[in-house]
Design goal:
Number of domains: 1
Structural class: alpha+beta
Radius of gyration: 17 Å
Largest sheet: 6 strands, antiparallel
């Protein structure tokens, strides 16, 4: 899998607020983080995208790609993994239950 292609597919039609992604090869050989700060400009975005232009094994074995992508709509994506197979999980903020909305109640 190509990390750049995967990221572009993940954020298609969305506005990215910021992101932090790290590629970690087997045996804990850490590579530099790919970071996209809040308030980034187009040049920083282009550099971030190019820093993700590498292939990695997203199949079973060990997780290779780690990170979080924050979106301007208040949602975010994190890496999901099971037995080394990995993917991006997109998270929506859960609706607040109505019993948590309104006047605070004090238990006696």
């Amino acid at each position: 899998m190509n990390a750049k292609t995967e990221f572009i597919e993940l954020v298609e039609g969305k506005e990215v607020k910021c992101a932090a992604i790290n590629y970690q090869e087997c045996w804990d050989k850490r590579n530099p983080d790919s970071l996209l700060p809040i308030g980034y400009d187009q040049e920083q975005y282009n550099q971030f995208i190019e820093s993700l232009d590498y292939d990695y094994d997203n199949g079973y074995g060990g997780q290779s790609l780690f990170g979080t992508v924050w979106l301007k709509d208040g949602t975010w994506a994190t890496r999901g993994e099971y037995d080394g197979s990995e993917w991006w999980d997109h998270h929506d903020c859960p609706e607040i239950p109505k019993e948590l909305i309104g006047e605070p109640k004090i238990a006696n």
